[in-house]
Amino acid sequence: MTADEIRGTIHGTAPVPLSVLDLVTVGAGRTATDALRTSVDLAKLTESRGFHRYWVAEHHSMPGVASSSPAVILAHLAAHTARIRLGSGGVMLPNHAPLVIAEQFGTLEAMAPGRVDLGLGRAPGTDGATAAALRRSERLNEGADDFPEQLVELTRFLDDDFPDGHPYRRIHAVPGPIQSTSPGGVQSPHRPPIWLLGSSGFSARLAATLGLPFAFAHHFSAQNTIPALDLYRESFRPSAVLKEPYALIGVSALATDDEKDARRQVLAASLNMVRLRTGRPGLVPTPEEAEAYDFSPMERDFITSWNANVIHGSVDEVRAGLDDLQKRTGADELMLTSHAHSAELRLRSYELIADAYGLPAV
Fold first, then answer.
1. Per residue in 203-258, pLDDT tens?
2. ω into residue 282 within 30 of 0, thus cis?
3. Do β-strands 18-22 and 53-56 pair in parallel, antiparallel, or remain unpaired?
4. Torsion of Cα atoms, 25 then 30 then 34 then 39, to 10°
5. Which long-range contacts (CB under 8 A, 24 or more apart) does 106-111 make?
6. 23/32 Cα distance (integer angstroms)
7. Cβ atoms of residues 46 and 84 within 8 Å
8. How many C-beta atoms surround the C-beta of residue 242 within 10 A?
9. Is 188 in contact with 107 (CB distance < 8 Å)?
């Protein structure tokens, strides 16, 4: 694993490398099958236009988000792509045994050598009751508090380097390095780079301490973006992985040919978020349903605040918004996520943004 497997390449006139975060959203009147087909189409499109990486995020018990199993989805995407990096944005490590994640991503690395990222988060990716079912424990804070220790364990499984005397010394994640030490064994030189994800300062500081790349969830924690990035950069310690800090931010962005379409789709996504935040998660509603919905004053205040950090409108507006955001944050990479009921408009948004920056058609 080298810094070259982490740092992206700038194409066209984009200020930094551009990447994709896909939540595999399911709209009203659509199925999870439809959503996953859209993900394949989107991965193929963005690969052909020079986007650097394509991540999917672990969520649970949300009807409108069909990404509960990132490793399964990434295996499917690996079969339909050839160059774009694929990864998790992220796997919620406290929900899983580290050995299982090492095995899953070792398998993915074997499927798509040299283009798999392992992004890790410490939140549950769901509500407390679902997290308890996933972790088979009511002590939810225990998983989050143990995150640094779980990370060390996972890293040792990936590198197959538990010290002598450790109870896991004779346990090996396969596919993995143990295969290269077996008689006649040959092992890929690649190992999925670990990224730490966060929406506050905890993972920023941990990523800096370990010299790892950092991904910040600007798309739902914008007020913490600059403080977290500053903390990461100020605390960064060079490592065998990175000599200098490298931070990407997730950004909600939707560009349309008609800016009215962007506003309508964003309103529908906002209604979906209102329902999620009030314990009523569902499918992403249609723009027509959102326009007919009677928002309370409190809900209107929420969506005004929420949409202040969604870059949407005409492609010129979106390009200007992305340029400004990158300049303000100094992000090394922008990872774009589009929230819309319409699969066609989501695909079109990435195409318009690629055109706006002159990204090549590969």
1. 999 999 999 999 999 998 999 999 999 999 999 999 999 999 999 999 999 999 99
2. no
3. parallel
4. -20
5. 106/158, 106/173, 106/174, 106/175, 106/176, 106/192, 107/71, 107/75, 107/175, 108/71, 108/74, 108/75, 108/78, 108/192, 109/175, 109/188, 109/190, 109/191, 109/192, 110/175, 110/188, 111/75, 111/78, 111/79
6. 12
7. yes
8. 21
9. no
- Predicted confidence band at 106 (pLDDT cuts at 50, 70, 90)? very high
Summarize pLDDT for 311-343 with one digit per residue, the tens.
999 999 999 999 999 999 999 999 999 999 999
Asked if 90 and 57 count as a contact pair (C-beta separation under 8 A), the reply is: yes
Cβ neighbours for 136, distance < 8 A, ≥ 6 positions apart: none
Place of tokens 């193929």: 44
Question: Hey, how many other C-beta atoms are within 10 angstroms of the C-beta on 360?
Answer: 10
CA distances from 119 to 21, 191, 196, 197, 203 (A): 12, 13, 6, 6, 12
From residue 207, alpha-carbon distances to 202, 320, 332 in Å are: 9, 30, 15
Q: Tell whether the torsion through CA atoms of 56, 57, 63 and 68 is positive or negative.
A: positive
Q: Which of 339, 307, 318 is nearest to 259 (CA)?
A: 318
Whole-angstrom distance, CA of residue 56 vs CA of residue 287: 25
Q: pLDDT tens digits, residue range 148-178?
A: 999 999 999 999 999 999 999 999 999 999 8
Q: Using an 8 Å Cβ cutoff, are 84 and 98 in contact? A: no
Q: To which residue do tokens 């407390």 refer?
A: 128
CB 121 within 8 A of CB 87: no
**How far is the C-alpha of 181 from the C-alpha of 278, rounded, in Å?**
53
Phi, psi of 310 (to 5 degrees): -105, 115
Q: What is the pTM of this model?
A: 0.94
